Automatic annotation (TrEMBL):
GO molecular function: alcohol dehydrogenase (NAD+) activity; metal ion binding
Domain Fe-containing alcohol dehydrogenase-like C-terminal: 181-373
Classification via InterPro entries: ADH_Fe/GldA, ADH_Fe_C, ADH_Fe_CS, Alcohol_dehydrogenase_Fe
Residues of the Alcohol dehydrogenase iron-type/glycerol dehydrogenase GldA domain: 2-168
Keywords from the named record: NAD, Oxidoreductase
Identification of the protein by name: Alcohol dehydrogenase class IV
Gene source species: Hungatella effluvii
Length: 378
């Protein structure tokens, strides 16, 4: 778990307490979208007040591949910074986490892909998520695309767990609805997948259930209303909890089948998961009835008179309603992907064994083909 987590109104001010007298030079990782949304002004002011010199690294690509990430590592090393601050979504945080374990120059990102356990934390990190979200601020994962595999691959190493986290809903005020919706459903997928994973356990279940409740209660308001700061903060906390669930459980077939859609076709991570969440969970229903019923009890409230099967159906229906209302693209054809791509997708998706092994119901090539076909035309 991260060393210290601050949340709520004014949480950004904690930057001073975290850094003052402790660090000399910070590298602030971010991207153009976050910069243009005007979100760097306050963190930069506070770092300045704390007497910490700051170098801003802004030109991070969205959902980077391993070679793009490597270029950022080189730039970061030249700064000589002794502290890393990441202000952004999962793309920014994942690159910053890699920088924290490659700062001494002894490792490349490609070496980490081969043997993720090699890296050791050299520079401490503060994560300030601006989407809610990937939960990367709570996990030991960094996800990069690998061009020749046409897949996204997770580098998993506990040394990447952040040292400090700030969850401040004010940063999400102007997050475009489209991005808020897709990233919010990504967090929903994390919670539901972790709760129904073969790796689920009492520790991860605590976080997954709390995350699911907060998400079902807040996602619509957080996406629709720029002024709904409390709902946005609740979504940030939920995404963080769902990230904590990932670290001790793991995502399942939704994320597995989603990886080639990001790796080859560059469909945003949240969008590809939102497309696959319902088809995969309907497929999983027979193997996850008890878990779905328990989640229904958690997010909707206990209704003792109905069967587990009815609870599962109602939970899935509620998820479908939310995803439809948020108007997230629901078909691969929207992204120009047709049936000619099917076999390649099936083979690449079935290669993500790290996550498929977590899925309670075994998935065959034929099942994966049916699932991709189901989302081909929405
Ligand atoms: N490490 C993990 O545990 C983990 C978990 C899930 C996903 N991921 C990875 O995270 C990446 C996706 O991250 P993401 O979904 O957060 O999106 P993202 O970081 O790619 O950001 C999406 C867009 O939103 C913009 N943006 C972000 N915050 C904003 C704000 N507050 N206001 C305005 N614009 C804003 C960004 O500039 C960017 O253009 C993927 O690479 C995915 O694989 C990592
Ligand atoms: Zn995800």
């Amino acid at each position: 778990m991260p060393g210290a987590v601050y949340s709520g109104r004014g949480a950004l001010r904690k930057i001073r307490e975290i850094t003052e007298g402790r660090f000399k030079k910070a590298a602030l990782f971010t991207d153009r979208g976050v910069e243009q949304a005007g979100l760097l002004k306050i963190p930069l002011e506070i770092l300045n007040e704390a007497g910490v010199e700051t170098v801003v690294i802004t030109d991070l690509p969205a959902e980077p591949n391993c070679d793009e990430a490597e270029q950022v590592m080189e730039r970061f090393r030249r700064t000589g910074a002794d502290f890393i601050v990441a202000a952004g979504g999962g793309s920014v945080m994942d690159v910053a986490k890699l920088a924290s374990i490659t700062a001494d120059g002894s490792l490349t990102v490609r070496q980490l892909l081969e043997d993720p356990g090699l890296g050791r934390k050299c520079v401490p990190t503060l994560m300030i998520p601006t989407t809610a979200g990937t939960g990367s601020e709570a996990t030991m994962n960094s996800i990069v695309a690998v061009p020749e595999k046409q897949l996204k691959v997770g580098i998993v190493n506990p040394e990447m767990i952040p040292d400090y986290v700030i969850l401040d809903g004010s940063l999400l005020k102007n997050l475009p609805r489209k991005i808020a919706a897709a990233t919010g459903v990504d967090a929903m997928a994390h919670a539901v997948e972790c709760f129904t994973s073969n790796k689920a356990n009492p520790f991860s279940n605590l976080f997954a259930k709390e995350a699911a409740k907060l998400i079902f209660d807040n996602i619509e308001a957080a996406c629709e209303d720029p002024e709904a700061e409390e709902a946005k903060t609740n979504m940030l906390i939920a995404a963080f909890y769902a990230g904590a669930a990932i670290s001790s459980s793991g995502t399942t077939a939704v994320h597995a089948l989603s990886y080639p859609l990001g790796g080859k076709y560059h469909i945003p991570h949240g969008v590809s998961n939102a497309m696959l969440l319902l088809p995969v969970m309907r497929f999983n229903k027979s193997a996850c009835l008890k878990e779905f019923a328990e989640l229904y009890d958690t997010v909707v409230g206990k209704e003792l008179q109905i069967t587990d099967e009815e609870k599962a159906d109602r939970l899935l229906k509620r998820m479908e309603e939310i995803i439809r209302r948020l108007e997230i693209p629901s078909s691969l054809s929207t992204f120009g992907i047709g049936t000619d791509a099917l076999e390649e997708l099936v083979n690449a998706g079935m290669d993500v064994k790290r996550l498929l092994n977590n899925n309670k119901r075994e998935i065959t090539h034929e099942d994966a083909r049916r699932l991709y076909l189901e989302v081909m035309h929405g």
